[in-house]
Specification:
This is DNA-damage-inducible protein D. It comes from Phocaeicola vulgatus (Bacteroides vulgatus). This protein is mainly alpha-helical. The protein contains eight helices and two strands; from the N terminus they run E-E-H-H-H-H-H-H-H-H. A hairpin with a 2-residue loop joins strand 1 and strand 2. It is elongated. The relative contact order is 0.10.
């Protein structure tokens, strides 16, 4: 803390061209922040500084949230692309859209110990919406990683038919175990904000920025 409140000296004029050295304190930006935040708000300078820092803090929070929102939207886009590729691979190997839905649900259960329907209920996602639109970013990325591995393994092992491919996708437990090793339990994570709302907010903010 001493670094932020450094003892210094400076020369001041005392009249008739005479100067004298006096003790002073050099404040870093952080020290100025602490002084302002803990000062008497009845003093105009302190009140102004407190308001300034409050505004800047809020701006930083908004920027951080925007970056997190963008990361989540990007992760969701990548998952959609991966699942589209996986669906194509499975279709070529005798799995129809209904079979793909079953395989994906079992993959969700391997990852989160809950099938798609139960996960939707837990996260408050409408039945008509896709589960991934309500997952937190890390869960979206975990699903993407698991789907990518399933796609590669199905092709490398030359699997065919729903039953054999189901067993491969259920091996998503490897991704779950990796998360558990870091103390992350997918089924205990809170729901993410509806991604459609997030996308609308980002688009609205982009329009405001371009108008300035």
């Amino acid at each position: 803390m001493a670094y932020h409140f450094a003892d210094v000296s400076k020369m001041v004029s005392v009249g008739s061209g005479v100067k004298r050295e006096i003790d002073d304190i050099y404040l870093t930006r952080y020290a100025c922040y602490l002084t302002a935040q803990n000062g008497d708000a009845r003093k105009p300078a302190i009140a102004f500084a407190q308001n300034y820092f409050a505004v800047q803090t809020r701006r930083a929070e908004l920027v951080e949230q925007r970056l997190l929102d963008y990361e989540r939207v990007q992760a969701r886009t990548e998952l959609a692309e991966t699942e589209k590729l996986l669906s194509g691979v499975l279709y070529e190997r005798g799995v129809d859209s209904k079979g793909f839905a079953i395989i994906r649900s079992k993959g969700d259960k391997a990852l989160s110990c809950l099938d798609t329907a139960l996960l939707k209920r837990k996260l408050g996602a409408p039945d008509s919406r896709l589960l991934a639109d309500f997952l937190p970013t890390i869960s979206i990325k975990a699903k993407d990683f698991a789907a990518e591995m399933a796609s590669i393994n199905v092709q490398q092992k030359d699997l065919y038919g729903q039953s054999s491919i189901e067993k491969e996708h259920i091996e998503n437990k490897a991704v779950r175990n990796m998360m558990l090793s870091r103390g992350i339990y997918p089924e205990q994570l809170s729901a993410g904000e509806d991604l459609k709302k997030v996308e609308r907010r980002l688009k609205s903010e982009e329009k405001k920025i371009t108008k300035k």
